[in-house]
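Q: Here's a chain of 172 amino acids. Please give me its 3D structure as tokens.
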Amino acid sequence: MIDKATLRMRMRQALELVDDRELRSVELWTRLTELPVYATAHTVMAFASMANEPDTDGLFARLARDGKVLVLPRMEGDVIVPVVMTGAVTVGRWDIREPVGPAIDPATIDLVVVPGVAFTVDGHRLGHGKAFYDRFLPTTRAVSVGACFSEQVVDELPTEPHDVRLHHVVYA
């Protein structure tokens, strides 16, 4: 099996070739909203997209239209802190938009939309290598959904005991 570092490199190269990112992002968020857990979720934690990731601005608009509370991660050291998105943002580490405001209790989140470099259809995930989400997800009772482009879906991933398996993976 391929090692994590090599797979990360290959996936990043593949993502640079995705030329219909915005259109496929719309399709991706439609698939997310078709999950039964979306209908029942009140508070949804998503992520602010980085280059080559699915464009999350459309998801943010959909969440607002559907009356959902949008929560975004803010990095404090090596810990993800969930914060309700009220409009005020700052640019954090890696040039990612982060919300300004007080942290909320992770137990109040119903659904977490998780980014990643690669996924399997049964919920295994390869992140960027810092294990931020692997440490965060056990702090919440939320259903976790990996969101990606079809190029990021692989048959198998190298896993370690600390890797958290997601409940669902959606892709377009």
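Q: Can you summarize the key feature?
A: Strands lie at 43-45, 69-76, 79-84, 89-91, 97-99, 111-114, 118-119, 125-126, 143-148, 168-171.
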